[in-house]
Write a structure and sequence with these properties.
The structure is a single chain. The chain is an alpha/beta fold. It has a single domain, classed as TIM Barrel. It is about 45% helix and about 10% strand. It has eleven helices and nine strands. The longest helix is centred in the middle third of the chain and has 20 residues. It starts with a helix and ends with a helix. Bound molecules: magnesium ion (MG). The site of magnesium ion has 4 residues, from loops.
Length: about 300
């Protein structure tokens, strides 16, 4: 095809697309469905004000928060306590935040064994609690010695994640890879890369998540979530300047681009608060943050 013919063809193609915008809209953006996707908010245990678990859950219920994210440390010993506290409430356990010892890419077999044992104990408890999954980071920058950042290590990670994912499935839950920013975990920084590891691990029990704070690594929140698609199992949220409450960093705290993707994906899981609080009045700041997120969700 010479250049003239090529131009004629592409111009004709573009004109056809302009003439039939409906075809594009119905394929890429199911707008009617999008508006009915609910925003399912969750709080980490430490984010919520209250002295006791019951007080924390009372506070959450008043705000219409439907997910509760405890830490994984000691979770096996808390299953009964958490079950009883949630009884009769419209709140479920969302994800479990890490809490294991060791790490999966440890070079030292003893440290890897610590990970295997403690992670499986948390996964078992997560299954008993009906959790969506247990969050894990393959290796933080400060964890040494770690396996080198090579192709062989990635293959090893996928194989190890496969085994862990199958175990999680047998417990009725999943394991969720969390990409972090480069200052904390250079190994895994992008949501799309985590999703590719889920695909290559080849187990329905291996999932990934996005954390709006760490997603400063991404060039587009929307593209990051869309790339994760069905592998996306959890989302963390914080303010985007200082990792405090959404809204405490003013105009920086815009989540609509990411929310738009979550709505288009009909994302069925939780958006969970993992953040500090700058204000002395945590309850009022949380309440305002929830309103801000609901407003941006509606606008997305
Ligand atoms: Mg996080």
């Amino acid at each position: 095809m010479d250049r003239k013919t090529f131009l004629r063809t592409t111009v004709a193609g573009a004109a056809a697309l302009v003439a039939a915008p409906g075809a594009l809209v119905s394929c890429a953006s199911p707008k009617e469905k999008k508006s009915s996707v609910p925003l399912r908010l969750s709080f980490q245990e430490g984010v919520t004000p209250g002295e006791t678990l019951a007080e924390k859950l009372d506070f959450m219920e008043k705000l219409g928060i439907v997910g509760f994210e405890p830490g994984g440390k000691g979770l096996a010993g808390r299953v009964q306590e958490i079950r009883e506290a949630l009884q009769g409430r419209d709140i479920q356990v969302s994800a479990i935040c890490a809490g294991f010892d060791g790490f999966i890419l440890a070079e030292d077999p003893a440290v890897k064994a610590q990970f295997d044992t403690s992670m499986r104990e948390i996964v078992r408890a997560a299954g008993e609690l009906g959790s969506t999954g247990v969050i894990m980071v393959p290796v933080f920058n400060w964890q040494n010695p770690a396996l080198p950042h090579t192709l062989e290590t990635r293959d090893y990670l996928c194989q190890q994640m496969h085994d862990l994912g199958e175990f999680a499935l047998s417990c009725g839950t999943t394991v969720i890879l969390e990409p972090l920013n480069r200052k904390e975990a250079f190994y895994l920084r992008l949501v799309g890369d985590a999703a590719a590891i889920c695909r290559d691990a080849d187990s329905a029990g291996v999932k990934c998540m996005g954390d709006f704070w760490h997603m400063q690594e991404e060039t587009s929140d929307y593209a990051a979530f869309m790339a994760a698609g069905p592998y996306l199992q959890h989302v963390h949220i914080a303010s985007r300047g200082n990792r405090v409450m959404p809204g405490e960093d003013g105009d920086k705290d815009c989540y609509t681009d990411g929310f738009r993707a979550l709505k288009e994906l009909a994302y069925p899981h939780y958006v969970s608060f993992e953040c500090g609080c700058r204000s002395d009045d945590r309850a009022a700041t949380l309440t305002a943050a929830v309103s801000l997120l609901r407003k941006q969700w509606d606008e997305a």
